[in-house]
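FORM 7B: Structural annotation worksheet

SECTION A. Query
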Amino acid sequence: MLKESPESALLDKRRRLAELISAQTPTPCDAETAAMERLRNPDSLVLITGQQCGLMLGPALVLYKTLDLLRVSRSLSSPTVCVFWMEGNDHDWAEAARLHLPGRRIVYEQSTESAGCSVGHLPLSEETRADAVSQFENSLGAYPCVELGQIRDTLLQAKDLADQFRHYMRRIFAHHGLLLLDPSDPDARELAVPFWTALADNANQLKEALVSQTEVLRSQGQRIQVEIDSRADFFVEDQWGKRVRPEVAKLPKDVRRVTPTVLTRPLLQDWLCDTWLTVLGPGEMSYQLQLDLAYEALGLCRPHRMPRTHIQLQLREDRDTLLRYGIPVEEPPRPGSPWPEHLLAQFPGARKGIADRDQLEHLASELEDLTERRSTEYRRPDLLTQSEKVSRQIRQLGDRLLQAGQQIHKVELRSLQERCAWLDHKDHPQERQINALALLCRMGGIKVVDLLLEGLPPVDLTHLTTPLAARVTLDLDPLRITDLE
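SECTION B. Predicted structure
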């Protein structure tokens, strides 16, 4: 069992964790150094969140998770340490090496020989880095920010996904004392050996706890994120670095080759970091409910759970422009979908095209009705075939007239579509569909993070289960928050 550590053991684990993070943090700033010192103090509360090491940080939600840590830290009177768990053990390359840009997602190919390996430290090809930089810069259009050169250079010089992720996160959050922890580091795996040993010794109790809690949730009608099977609750990397899920919970001779599953990762994280509070996304909140009995089975203290904040960012210039054309910023047209006709009608050329198309549609319908009556009256079924052909040609002409009307306003429509592509859309939220760095650049630069930290309301520690949702409007000159709702 992983019973609560005696004070001496906890002190030693905190000391080793602080040394590990220090080794992973080249040239720490004053705020990072102070945070490492607080981490050595067992009375400090560890606040933690995490995400896989995404290309150019991945989607914007990674920013909001981290902001929540800092907001909670500011709301507590006790000393705190904010830790970001850089999940480099994940093997989902397609998700990690995906570039989320307005209206499109680009997934870079993985080499065949690295399939199934932990992706954090797989090298990024020169072609991938160069193309990602090019796509990133093109997405910004007329809104390049002052940090663009640093963003470009960081990616072009990065060794792998973890390396570029660490550089970007430190650039944004280091001065707030955020510490970054890479659990795929060999020294981190060495530190985790006692956890895996205890987990293997209590594998049956853990499995029973997972099965029991999952069935309780299922009986309550809750969605089950992770189905429990009979295999071991960890992976083992083979000699090529590929992850294999053992059938039985037997550890290899070199325990450093063991990596967590989606369910044992939080257990490892909270044992290693002595977590007091963790910030989670909706999916994470769901599957962590399956772990309630697992913490008891392993003798671990379950941390407080806080759902992450949902934030929508928009420029005042974008909002005002779209509203001027009658386009609702709360529900703008979705990128890649046909522009709604009630919005097209705002433009004279398109409005005439719609009217011409509707008139031709009316003529086609009248022709079909007349032909149907005459074919019955004169017993000429062949008239129907001829009528269908002519009606189809009339409708095609109407569609071409509508397209011609839109072409008159092509530049104007494209500008509006580009503005809409940066906003929140139903079932396609900005925080998941737009790259974090691209969104910051579009909204004025990485200083936006500091503005949000100062502008968002304090965390209500008595209502941690209620997530904050905010729409934030920004002005570029000077960069400031003009509206928060």
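SECTION C. Observations
The chain is about 50% helix and 15% strand. The first helix runs from residue 7 to 23.

SECTION D. Sign-off
Analyst initials: ____
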